[in-house]
Please model this.
Amino acid sequence: MSEQTLSYQHTPIIDLQLPILQKTGIKLFIKREDQNHPRISGNKWWKLKYNLQAAQQQKHNTLLTFGGAYSNHIYATAAAAHELGLKSIGIIRGEETLPLNATLAFAKSRGMQLHYVSREAYRNKHSTEFIQSLHDRFGEFYLIPEGGTNTLAIKGVAEFAQRLQHEAAFDYVCLPVGTGGTIAGLIAGMNEQTQVVGISVLKNGEFLVDEVKNHLKTFSDRVYGNWHIETSYHHGGYAKTNPQLFEFIHNMNQQHQLPLDPVYTAKLMWGVMNMIEKEKFTPGSNVLMLHTGGLQGLQT
Ligand SMILES: *Cc1c(COP(=O)(O)O)cnc(C)c1O
Model:
């Protein structure tokens, strides 16, 4: 069987015109990487790229991964497996709720076998005993960790970063941070003139700094200094929202034709605008936001 790759669509960089930019002299852009693939969008495409290649090279015919019921990674993995003719198994945190939400219904429609585990069992997802029990039950599989974050994911995102800096030069690249895999790839791939700014979508996101350092260590011996994580734009925590955030999403869509999801990209943009207001960027600099995708989550 010859190796297959996912289809990929080149994505534009959009120049955003916002009133607040005039007085600060900041130029703000957004890389619409959400448009790279209709189903495997944004960062998930790049995180999966080399994992899919490794799975095929190692002659696996099944992918197994983990996620919550609304996980964009579960959605993307199911779509990728289907596109490449692989089987997929999703280990889902918590009990099954019917009818399935749009994420899980889609995953199932792409042939993903959904297996629910209690929150306690899910916490042990990295333990060798738990992985062995999954092998006993499901046989051979290529394992992709929760959120898709591993060394091959970082390699994929680093490749994206290298391509991005050939398109244009930016003083800052800003992106939302969940597990920290994507920001690790960007830090590894961008040149040192660019500051990488992560917006934590998790409450108490200070721990992410060490997580990202650990991800980077698995990838390279280099020490990277050109990055930091902002921890005050989570809006109450992972997937927590409020009416102001939805109003913000609505306004961005109406006034700038910019679709944002409430879990990641709206918090990114909110945070970046707040940072512009507080003059946290050097006046006159070019700031790029990375649209990491996740728009399919709006259906749920
Ligand atoms: C998964 C996801 C992220 C978080 O990526 P990490 O590598 O886990 O930090 C950000 N944005 C979107 C839209 C996502 O789906």
Summary: The first strand starts at residue 13 and ends at 16. The chain has a mean pLDDT of 96.
